[in-house]
Specification:
A hairpin with a 7-residue loop joins strand 4 and strand 5. The protein folds into 2 domains: 77 residues, Arc Repressor Mutant, subunit A, CATH 1.10.10.10; 78 residues, Winged helix-like DNA-binding domain superfamily/Winged helix DNA-binding domain (Arc Repressor Mutant, subunit A), CATH 1.10.10. Helices cover 56% and strands 13% of the residues. It has 192 residues and is of the alpha+beta class. Helix 1 packs across helix 3, helix 2 packs across helix 3 and helix 5 crosses helix 7. The strands form 2 sheets. The chain has a 3-stranded antiparallel beta sheet with strand order 1-3-2.
Protein backbone atom coordinates (compact mmCIF):
# COMPACT_ATOMS: atom_id res chain seq x y z
CA UNK A 1 0.00 0.00 0.00
CA UNK A 2 1.37 3.43 -0.98
CA UNK A 3 2.06 5.99 1.75
CA UNK A 4 -0.64 8.47 0.61
CA UNK A 5 -3.23 5.69 0.35
CA UNK A 6 -2.24 4.43 3.82
CA UNK A 7 -2.57 7.94 5.31
CA UNK A 8 -5.98 8.37 3.69
CA UNK A 9 -7.19 5.02 5.01
CA UNK A 10 -5.92 5.69 8.54
CA UNK A 11 -7.47 9.16 8.62
CA UNK A 12 -10.82 7.78 7.43
CA UNK A 13 -10.80 4.94 9.96
CA UNK A 14 -9.90 7.17 12.91
CA UNK A 15 -12.52 9.73 11.91
CA UNK A 16 -15.26 7.15 11.42
CA UNK A 17 -14.52 5.20 14.61
CA UNK A 18 -14.60 8.24 16.90
CA UNK A 19 -13.06 6.24 19.75
CA UNK A 20 -9.46 5.08 19.89
CA UNK A 21 -8.31 2.25 17.64
CA UNK A 22 -5.46 -0.08 18.60
CA UNK A 23 -2.39 -0.11 16.38
CA UNK A 24 -2.72 -3.88 16.02
CA UNK A 25 -6.29 -3.58 14.66
CA UNK A 26 -5.29 -0.84 12.21
CA UNK A 27 -2.35 -2.89 10.94
CA UNK A 28 -4.54 -5.97 10.46
CA UNK A 29 -7.26 -3.99 8.65
CA UNK A 30 -4.74 -2.34 6.34
CA UNK A 31 -2.52 -5.38 5.78
CA UNK A 32 0.69 -3.70 6.94
CA UNK A 33 3.10 -4.01 9.88
CA UNK A 34 2.28 -2.30 13.19
CA UNK A 35 5.59 -0.41 12.99
CA UNK A 36 4.56 1.06 9.63
CA UNK A 37 1.17 2.12 11.03
CA UNK A 38 2.87 3.75 14.04
CA UNK A 39 5.36 5.56 11.81
CA UNK A 40 2.65 6.89 9.48
CA UNK A 41 0.30 7.97 12.29
CA UNK A 42 3.07 9.70 14.24
CA UNK A 43 4.01 11.63 11.09
CA UNK A 44 0.34 12.50 10.46
CA UNK A 45 -0.08 13.68 14.08
CA UNK A 46 2.99 15.92 13.80
CA UNK A 47 1.75 17.27 10.46
CA UNK A 48 -1.74 18.05 11.86
CA UNK A 49 -0.26 19.83 14.89
CA UNK A 50 2.40 21.63 12.83
CA UNK A 51 -0.12 23.06 10.39
CA UNK A 52 -2.38 24.23 13.21
CA UNK A 53 -5.34 22.19 11.98
CA UNK A 54 -8.58 21.91 13.94
CA UNK A 55 -8.12 18.21 14.57
CA UNK A 56 -5.36 16.25 16.23
CA UNK A 57 -4.37 12.60 16.39
CA UNK A 58 -3.76 11.57 19.98
CA UNK A 59 -1.85 8.50 21.12
CA UNK A 60 -3.32 6.59 24.06
CA UNK A 61 -0.98 3.74 25.08
CA UNK A 62 -1.16 1.33 22.09
CA UNK A 63 -4.05 3.10 20.32
CA UNK A 64 -4.76 6.31 18.40
CA UNK A 65 -7.77 8.62 18.27
CA UNK A 66 -8.74 11.64 16.22
CA UNK A 67 -9.97 14.54 18.36
CA UNK A 68 -10.62 18.27 18.27
CA UNK A 69 -7.66 20.58 18.80
CA UNK A 70 -7.81 22.11 22.30
CA UNK A 71 -7.74 25.68 21.00
CA UNK A 72 -10.98 25.05 19.06
CA UNK A 73 -12.98 24.15 22.17
CA UNK A 74 -14.24 27.68 22.90
CA UNK A 75 -15.70 27.87 19.37
CA UNK A 76 -17.09 24.36 19.52
CA UNK A 77 -19.21 25.05 22.60
CA UNK A 78 -21.11 27.73 20.69
CA UNK A 79 -22.26 25.10 18.20
CA UNK A 80 -22.59 22.00 20.33
CA UNK A 81 -24.33 21.72 23.65
CA UNK A 82 -21.74 22.58 26.27
CA UNK A 83 -20.59 19.31 27.82
CA UNK A 84 -20.87 18.97 31.57
CA UNK A 85 -17.45 18.46 33.05
CA UNK A 86 -17.11 15.96 35.84
CA UNK A 87 -16.19 17.66 39.10
CA UNK A 88 -13.53 15.62 40.83
CA UNK A 89 -13.63 16.21 44.57
CA UNK A 90 -10.65 15.51 46.82
CA UNK A 91 -12.19 12.14 47.73
CA UNK A 92 -12.62 11.19 44.06
CA UNK A 93 -9.07 12.32 43.22
CA UNK A 94 -7.62 10.40 46.15
CA UNK A 95 -9.41 7.21 45.16
CA UNK A 96 -8.56 7.70 41.49
CA UNK A 97 -4.88 8.12 42.31
CA UNK A 98 -4.91 4.90 44.35
CA UNK A 99 -6.39 3.04 41.37
CA UNK A 100 -3.95 4.66 38.92
CA UNK A 101 -0.84 3.80 40.92
CA UNK A 102 -1.89 0.42 42.39
CA UNK A 103 -3.85 -1.14 39.51
CA UNK A 104 -5.11 -3.75 39.26
CA UNK A 105 -6.64 -3.11 42.67
CA UNK A 106 -9.68 -4.39 44.56
CA UNK A 107 -12.25 -2.30 46.43
CA UNK A 108 -11.00 -3.82 49.71
CA UNK A 109 -7.43 -2.71 48.95
CA UNK A 110 -8.62 0.83 48.18
CA UNK A 111 -10.64 0.92 51.40
CA UNK A 112 -7.65 -0.34 53.39
CA UNK A 113 -5.50 2.49 52.03
CA UNK A 114 -8.19 5.18 52.47
CA UNK A 115 -9.46 3.83 55.78
CA UNK A 116 -13.13 4.34 54.83
CA UNK A 117 -15.79 2.65 52.70
CA UNK A 118 -15.57 3.74 49.07
CA UNK A 119 -18.30 1.89 47.18
CA UNK A 120 -20.02 5.16 46.23
CA UNK A 121 -16.75 6.79 45.16
CA UNK A 122 -15.83 3.81 42.96
CA UNK A 123 -19.31 3.92 41.37
CA UNK A 124 -18.86 7.65 40.63
CA UNK A 125 -15.46 7.05 39.00
CA UNK A 126 -16.99 4.28 36.88
CA UNK A 127 -19.85 6.64 35.89
CA UNK A 128 -17.26 9.23 34.86
CA UNK A 129 -15.53 6.47 32.82
CA UNK A 130 -12.22 7.09 34.59
CA UNK A 131 -11.96 3.56 35.99
CA UNK A 132 -13.43 0.22 34.98
CA UNK A 133 -13.57 -3.40 36.04
CA UNK A 134 -10.62 -5.14 34.42
CA UNK A 135 -11.06 -8.62 35.83
CA UNK A 136 -11.52 -10.60 39.00
CA UNK A 137 -9.00 -11.64 41.63
CA UNK A 138 -8.45 -15.38 41.94
CA UNK A 139 -9.35 -15.44 45.64
CA UNK A 140 -12.38 -16.34 47.75
CA UNK A 141 -15.36 -14.28 46.65
CA UNK A 142 -13.54 -13.39 43.41
CA UNK A 143 -13.46 -9.62 44.08
CA UNK A 144 -13.45 -7.21 41.14
CA UNK A 145 -10.18 -5.68 40.02
CA UNK A 146 -10.23 -2.05 38.92
CA UNK A 147 -7.97 -0.11 36.58
CA UNK A 148 -7.95 3.20 34.74
CA UNK A 149 -9.47 3.77 31.29
CA UNK A 150 -8.46 5.61 28.13
CA UNK A 151 -10.74 8.44 29.28
CA UNK A 152 -8.48 8.73 32.34
CA UNK A 153 -5.44 9.12 30.06
CA UNK A 154 -7.26 11.74 27.96
CA UNK A 155 -8.50 13.65 31.02
CA UNK A 156 -5.01 13.91 32.50
CA UNK A 157 -3.20 14.50 29.20
CA UNK A 158 -0.93 11.47 29.26
CA UNK A 159 -0.41 8.79 26.65
CA UNK A 160 0.41 6.00 29.10
CA UNK A 161 0.56 5.27 32.81
CA UNK A 162 4.36 5.50 32.68
CA UNK A 163 3.96 9.28 32.26
CA UNK A 164 2.29 9.67 35.66
CA UNK A 165 4.47 11.57 38.13
CA UNK A 166 6.49 9.54 40.59
CA UNK A 167 7.24 10.37 44.19
CA UNK A 168 10.79 10.43 45.43
CA UNK A 169 11.68 8.38 48.54
CA UNK A 170 11.87 11.51 50.74
CA UNK A 171 8.27 12.48 49.85
CA UNK A 172 7.08 8.93 50.52
CA UNK A 173 8.73 8.96 53.95
CA UNK A 174 7.16 12.36 54.74
CA UNK A 175 3.71 11.05 53.77
CA UNK A 176 4.21 8.00 56.01
CA UNK A 177 5.14 10.22 58.95
CA UNK A 178 2.11 12.47 58.34
CA UNK A 179 -0.21 9.46 58.15
CA UNK A 180 1.21 8.01 61.38
CA UNK A 181 0.79 11.38 63.14
CA UNK A 182 -2.82 11.65 61.95
CA UNK A 183 -3.53 8.08 63.08
CA UNK A 184 -2.02 8.80 66.50
CA UNK A 185 -4.14 11.97 66.85
CA UNK A 186 -7.26 10.00 65.96
CA UNK A 187 -6.41 7.37 68.62
CA UNK A 188 -5.86 10.07 71.25
CA UNK A 189 -9.29 11.57 70.48
CA UNK A 190 -10.96 8.15 70.76
CA UNK A 191 -9.20 7.34 74.05
CA UNK A 192 -10.20 10.65 75.70
Amino acid sequence: MERLELEKAIEGILFAMGDSVETERLAAALGVDESEVTEVIDAMAADFAGKGRGIRITKLENAYQMCTAPEIYEHLVHIAKQPKKAQLTDVLMETLSIVAYKQPVTKAEIEKIRGVSCGHVISKLIDYKLIEEIGRLDAPGRPMLFGTTEDFLRAFGVTSLEELPTLNPVQIEEFKLQAEAEANEALEVVEV
